[in-house]
Each structure stands twice: as structure tokens, then as C-alpha cells.
Amino acid sequence: MNYGKRRLLTVGSAAAGVGAVLGVALWIGGTQQEGGNGQTGRQEAVAERGRTVMPFDLEETTHHFTPTETGGVQDVVADQPDDAKQVSLIRTHLQEEAKAFGRGDFGDPAQIHGDGMPGLAELEDGYERIEVRYRERPDGATLTYTTAEPALVDALHDWFEAQLSDHGDHAKQDTDQRAEHRSKPSPHTSHDRKWTA
Q1: What pLDDT, in 10s, does the model give residues 71-91?
Q2: Which of 150, 154, 148 is nearest to 119 (CA)?
Q3: What whole-number distance in Å separates Cα of residue 147 and Cα of residue 171?
Q4: Distances (CA, A) of 25 to 15, 32, 121, 145
Q5: What span, in angstroms and rounded, lies between the C-alpha atoms of 68 and 70?
Q6: Sign (positive or negative) of CA dihedral 34, 55, 141, 159
Q7: For the segment 34-44, what is each residue's pLDDT rounded down to a tens digit?
Q8: How many C-beta atoms lie closer than 10 Å to residue 173's C-beta?
Q9: Strand pairing class (71-78; 61-68)
């Protein structure tokens, strides 16, 4: 074989190899690409699993996650504050979640986001040292997580970040300054309940 043909064969083989690698990368990355609704494949899968766990409509509600120095605040609110159906469903679900978390049962988030979600193992192991407080608000409900252990605060923040990423447009991050205002109870209710182990 002459030098020109050998060089052409080498270049062709290299191009085929690069093409194969790119094809595999695009195939693997395809599950992370945006779908028709602007969500990644993972966010769509999380939303689908969420529908089997959360009774309220993700398209009609928003999760707000606010990291704090002692843990964090999770608000779930109806996008239309006067949507009594969604508000009721949010409240029922968050009451149940507060009780479960107080027992160390984080099965619902694991079912939605996966057993390996950041922070989850630490929260399951340290649940006895985390106070979970439920509070109603006019447009939904709030869970406030408080702990004195910096490692558990970090785990809560990691857990919040994972949910923010996975929920996409269905979730927002708020600042600690707003958390104090947002977590105040509705003047029409006195439902402030604490569940700890």
C-alpha cells in the first residue's frame, strides 16, 4: 500500500472513531436535553414520578426552597392563591411529609428523585436531630427544617439544591431574608405543628 492510501485510510479511521464517540455522547446526553416543554429528560421523569407521590398538580403549584443558617424552609404554594383545591392538597401532603420526615421516612423524595439524591442519606441518618415544623399559609403550606449540626445543615442545603434542579420550572430558590416573612402563619389559621422523632 502506498503512503497516500495509508494516510487516507488512517484519517478515515480516525474520523469514524470520532464520529462514533460523538454519537455515543449525544445518545447519552439525549436524556439530559430539553424536551418540548423546556424541561430536561430528568426533569420530565421527576415530574412524572412526582405525580404518583404528590396529590397536587405540579403545573398549578410552585415549590420554593430557602436555605437558612440552621436548615431551610420549603414552601409549596398554589400559583393561583384562591385555588382552594390545590391549597388543600398541598396542606394534606405537607402534613403527611412532616410526620414521615419526623420518623426518618424520606421514602417519598427518594421515590421521586432517586435513592442517591444529594443529602438524603445524611438526613435519614440524622433525622432525630432535625426539627420539622409544619405551618399553613394562605396559598399553601410551609415546612421548616431546623438543626444545630452544621453537617445536617449542609445536607439540607444539598437536598434543596437537588430538588431545585430536578423540579425545574416547578421550583424556585428564595433568599433567607424572604424566608422569615414567607414562613409566618396565616392570620386565619393557627396550624403550626412540630414533628420530631
Answers
A1: 999 999 999 999 999 999 999
A2: 154
A3: 23
A4: 15, 11, 30, 40
A5: 5
A6: negative
A7: 444 556 776 67
A8: 13
A9: antiparallel
